[in-house]
Design brief:
Elements lengths: L1 H8 L3 H13 L8 E15 L2 E8 L8 E4 L3 E8 L7 E4 L25 E7 L5 E7 L9 E7 L13 E10 L4 H11 L8 E4 L16 E4 L4 E8 L5 E6 L4 E6 L2 E8 L1 E4 L4 E7 L8 E9 L11 E9 L2 E2 L7 E2 L9 H10 L19 E13 L12 E7 L2 E3 L6 H6 L32 E3 L2 E4 L3 E9 L8 E5 L4 E8 L18 E2 L1 E4 L3 E9 L3 E7 L2 H5 L3 E6 L21
This protein binds CU-O-CU linkage (C2O).
CU-O-CU linkage (C2O) binds next to β5 and β33.
InterPro entries: Cu-oxidase-like_N, Cu-oxidase_2nd, Cu-oxidase_C, Cu-oxidase_fam, Cu_oxidase_CS, Cu_oxidase_Cu_BS, Cupredoxin, CuRO_1_LCC
Cofactor: Cu cation
Protein name: Laccase
Length: 580
C-alpha cells in the first residue's frame, strides 16, 4: 500500500520506509512507530492559466506533500519558515489528544512560526484511519499550503471493503491569478466581499475547461476491471464542491477518517475541510469514449462565487498502453445546479457511521450535560468614521457566532490559559444561546450589529455536549461548513428553518449518526451535534469558508483538565513553542 503511494508522490516515501524498518527492528509489542517529515516553507513560482505567481509551498510542491502513517503511529514534522510571512500548520481532523500545542491554528494554540524559525509538531494518531489533511492556519496561506494526511489501518488490520488495486488522493483547491493575501487584505480594508478565484483545481491542476490550461489537467490512469480508492480532500478556500466521474458509480466508504455504511452515488458533495474516500471500478473493457472527472461549486448564498468547473480525465490503460480516446465522444458527469439544496439534504442523509461487529463505531452521547444553541451567519459592521466602505449601505461585511464576531488575539489562547494569563486576552462569557432570540430564518431584524470580542466557552473535562448550529438570514442564508478542532462530533440531526428544541430532538439519530470533524450547516437550516469533551486544551471552531473565518465566524472552547491526573491533563508546552 505504502509503495503504491510512491508512484504518485515520489521521493518522500523511501526515507520513511527506511525509518520504518529501523523502528521495526527494535520493536517490542507496544513500540510506537515514528514518521518523520521535514517541511520547508518556501516561495516557488507556479504557472496556471498562463499566469505565473510566487506561491508559498512546502518543499516546493503544490499541492504539498502527503503525510503517510498508520493508525497508532507518532508523527513528527519539523516545519521551517523560509518566507516573509508568519506561518503555522494545522493537522486538520487529527484529534491531538492532550497534545493541543501541536494543533496549529495561529493565536489559538500557538504563536506563528516567524521567518527563519522552526517548530516541531509532534502528535500520535489514535483511533483514526482514512484521509485527513494538513494546511496552513493563518490568514489565507492555506490557499497553497496544504496536502493530504493518509492514515492506513494498523498493521495486519484490513479495510471494511475489498482492498483496492490502487489508492489516489485528489485534493481540490482554488487557483486565483491574484495574490490571495492581497485579495483578503483588500476585502477586510474595504468591507467588500473578497474577489473569487479563477479556477478550481484537482491536485493543483485546473484542467481542460479553462483557457490556457489543457496541459494542466489531472489524469487518472486506470486498468479495465480494477477498483480504485480515491481519497478526496476539499482544500478550496471558499466553495463546497460537487464531484463525479462520467459513467462511473462511486461508493462512499469513509468520511473525515471514520468508516461509513457504504452507499452508491454518481455525485458526491464535499465542503471545505471535509474528506471523503470513495471506491469505483473501471469498466471491464477499454471504453469507446473519454470520461471526464468534474468538480464544480455548490453555492447557496446571494454572494458572487466562482462558477467554473475543474475537469480531469479518466485515462484507461490496456495491456500497458494508454487507450487513445481523444477522437471519441467526451462524456461528462451531470453535476447538480450550484444551488441544489435538495441534493445536499439527500446526500447528507445517506452518511451513516459503519458500526458493524468487526468495525464498531464510537457511539454518540445518549444523554447530554450541557446544551448550546449557536447562531452562525453573516452580519454587518458600521464603517469607521471618515472612511467609505463597500459592504451593503456603506457597511463592512462581518460574520459571527451568537452575535460575537471573534477578534483574533495577539497572543495564543492556549498559552494564556495554561499560564493563567487570560486577563486582557480572552474572557469566558461566550453566550450559550443567542443573546436576543429572533426568527433566525425569517426576515432579519433591523439591528444586526455584531459585537466584536474574544470570548470562549468553558467546559469541564468529560462534559457531554449538544450543540445546535443555526444558520441565520442576516444579509443572506448560506451553507456554513463548521469545523471543530480537537474532537469528532456526531451529527445527530439536521433540518430546515428554525431548530425547535421541543420537537426536533425526538427525530435525532442516536443509532448510527455520522462522526465527523466538519459539518455543512444547511443553508437556512440547522444541524445538531453531540460530542464528549474528553480532550483538555483550547479548541478552535470556525466556518471553513475562508472569507467567513476572516469576518469573525469563529470561537474557541476551553476544555479543563480532569481530576484523573496526567492522563486527563494537557501536556506541558514543548520547549520550541514559537514566541509571539
Ligand atoms: Cu481545517 Cu481550523 O481548520
Amino acid at each position: 500500500m505504502i509503495l503504491a503511494m510512491q508512484t504518485f508522490y515520489g521521493r518522500l516515501v523511501l526515507p520513511l520506509l527506511a525509518l520504518w524498518f529501523t523502528v521495526q527492528f527494535v520493536s517490542a509489542k507496544h513500540t510506537v512507530i515514528t514518521r518523520r517529515y521535514k517541511f520547508n516553507v518556501q516561495m516557488t513560482n507556479v504557472t496556471r492559466l498562463c499566469t505565473t505567481k510566487a506561491l508559498l509551498t512546502v518543499n516546493g510542491q503544490y499541492p504539498g506533500p502527503p503525510i503517510v502513517a498508520r493508525e497508532g503511529d507518532r508523527v513528527v514534522v519539523n516545519v521551517t519558515n523560509n518566507v516573509q510571512n508568519n506561518v503555522s500548520i494545522h493537522w486538520h481532523g487529527i484529534r491531538q489528544l492532550r497534545s493541543g500545542w501541536a494543533d496549529g491554528p495561529a493565536y489559538v494554540t500557538q504563536c506563528p512560526i516567524q521567518t527563519g524559525q522552526s517548530y516541531v509538531y509532534k502528535f500520535i494518531i489514535k483511533r483514526q484511519r482514512g484521509t485527513l489533511w494538513w494546511h496552513a492556519h493563518i490568514s489565507w496561506l492555506r490557499a497553497s499550503l496544504h496536502g493530504p494526511i493518509i492514515i492506513y489501518p494498523k498493521k495486519n488490520a484490513s479495510y471494511p471493503f475489498p482492498r483496492p488495486h490502487q489508492e489516489v488522493p485528489i485534493v481540490f483547491g482554488e487557483w486565483g491569478n491574484a495574490d490571495t493575501e492581497t485579495v483578503i487584505n483588500q476585502a477586510l480594508q474595504s468591507g467588500a466581499q473578497a474577489n473569487v478565484s479563477d479556477a478550481y483545481t484537482m491536485n493543483g491542476l485546473p484542467g481542460l475547461m479553462y483557457n490556457c490550461s489543457a496541459n494542466d489537467t489531472f489524469r487518472l490512469k486506470v486498468i479495465p476491471g480494477k477498483t480504485y480508492l480515491l481519497r478526496l480532500v476539499n482544500a478550496a478556500l471558499n466553495s463546497d464542491l460537487f464531484f463525479g466521474i462520467a459513467n462511473h458509480t462511486l461508493t462512499v466508504v469513509e468520511a473525515d477518517a471514520v468508516y461509513v455504511k457504504p452507499f452508491q452515488t454518481n455525485i458526491i458533495l464535499i465542503t471545505p475541510g471535509q474528506t471523503t474516500n470513495v471506491l469505483f471500478t473501471a469498466m471491464s473493457q477499454p471504453p469507446n469514449a473519454t470520461f471526464l472527472i468534474l468538480a464544480g461549486p455548490f453555492a447557496t448564498g446571494t454572494a458572487a462565487f466562482d462558477n467554473s468547473t475543474s475537469a480531469g480525465v479518466l485515462e484507461y490503460v490496456a495491456n500497458g498502453t494508454p487507450v487513445n480516446t481523444s477522437s471519441l465522444p467526451m462524456m461528462k458527469p451531470t453535476l447538480p445546479a450550484p444551488n441544489d439544496t435538495c441534493f445536499r439534504s439527500q446526500f447528507s442523509q445517506k452518511m451513516r457511521s459503519l458500526g458493524n461487529p468487526n468495525f464498531p463505531a464510537a457511539s454518540a452521547p445518549q444523554k447530554v450535560d450541557k446544551q448550546f444553541l449557536f447562531t452562525v451567519g453573516l452580519g454587518l459592521n458600521p464603517c469607521p468614521q471618515g472612511q467609505t466602505c463597500q459592504g451593503p449601505n456603506n457597511t463592512k461585511f462581518a460574520a459571527s457566532i451568537n452575535n460575537i464576531s471573534f477578534i483574533q488575539p495577539t497572543t495564543a489562547l492556549l498559552q494564556a490559559y495554561y499560564f493563567n494569563q487570560s486577563n486582557g486576552v480572552y474572557n469566558t462569557t461566550f453566550p450559550d444561546n443567542p443573546p436576543f432570540p429572533f426568527n433566525y430564518t425569517g426576515t432579519p431584524p433591523n439591528n444586526t450589529r455584531t459585537l466584536n470580542d474574544t470570548r470562549v466557552e468553558l467546559l469541564p473535562f468529560n462534559t457531554t455536549v449538544q450543540l445546535v448550529l443555526q444558520d441565520t438570514s442576516i444579509v443572506t442564508f448560506e451553507s456554513h461548513p463548521l469545523h471543530l478542532h480537537g474532537f469528532n462530533f456526531f451529527i445527530v440531526g439536521q433540518g430546515m428553518g428554525n431548530y425547535n428544541a421541543s420537537t426536533d430532538p425526538a427525530n435525532f439519530n442516536l443509532v448510527d449518526p455520522p462522526e465527523r470533524n466538519t459539518v455543512g450547516v444547511p443553508s437556512g437550516g440547522w444541524a445538531a451535534l453531540r460530542f464528549l469533551a474528553d480532550n483538555p486544551g483550547v479548541w478552535f471552531m470556525h466556518c471553513h469558508l475562508e472569507p467567513h473565518t476572516s469576518w469573525g465566524l469563529k470561537m474557541a472552547w476551553v476544555v479543563l483538565n480532569g481530576n484523573g491526573g496526567r492522563s486527563q491533563s494537557l501536556l506541558p508546552p514543548p520547549k520550541d513553542l514559537p514566541p509571539c
